Amino acid sequence: MQLIKVIIGTHTIMADGALRALNGTHQLLLAAKHFAIPVIVCAALYKLSPTHVCSYDEDAFNKIVGPENMLSFSNASLHSKVLVSNPEFDYVPSNLTELFITNTGGHTPSYLYRIVSELYHPLDYNLDNMCVEEKEDELEKT
Predict the structure, then answer these.
(1) Is 48 helix (H, G, I), strand (E, B) or coil?
(2) Cβ(69)–Cβ(86) under 8 Å?
(3) Full-prediction pTM beyond 0.85?
(4) With contact defined as beta carbons under 8 Å apart, do 15 and 116 qualify?
(5) Helix (H, G, I), strand (E, B) or coil at 11
(6) Can you tell me the distance from the alpha carbon of 52 to that of 73, in angstroms, rounded to the nearest whole number?
(7) Is the distance from CB of 25 to CB of 92 less than 8 angstroms?
């Protein structure tokens, strides 16, 4: 049997087509690229984010969770001897995906910029802790 395509879901789609996907997805898609197998991402449009991840920020992008999924508490003597880093998500660059299928149809990674510009106001691109009143004041000025 030959594998002809990889279909995955994701946690978040960044504006440039990069993914925030479950741990292990990056390795899977690297293997798919090596063997020239197309990758299709299925996700609803509400998972599209207007943010980008800088190359120096890829490590801070992840969420580290507790080691209980990797080590059971029956190995209590082992817990004091090892340091376990258990990342919840992987950063997956956009060059590893071929097609995004959303509730509005199929899109290439390069077309996601257009969808982001249709869904989000330019003031929404910066998701810092801006309170509602400040946002309304900015809208009144424009």
Answers:
(1) strand
(2) yes
(3) no
(4) yes
(5) coil
(6) 38
(7) yes
Smallest CA-to-CA distance from 89 within 9, 15, 33 is with: 9
Measured between alpha carbons, how far is 13 from 42 in angstroms, rounded to an integer?
10
CA 34 from chain center: how many Å?
Answer: 21
CB atoms within 10 A of CB 42: 14
CA nearest neighbour of 20 among 47, 54, 55: 47
Residue pLDDT tens, the chain, 142 long: 788 999 999 998 988 888 999 989 999 999 999 999 999 999 998 898 887 776 556 666 777 777 777 776 666 677 677 777 777 888 888 899 999 999 989 988 888 878 888 887 777 666 554 444 455 555 566 5
Do residues 107 and 115 touch, judged by C-beta distance below 8 A? yes
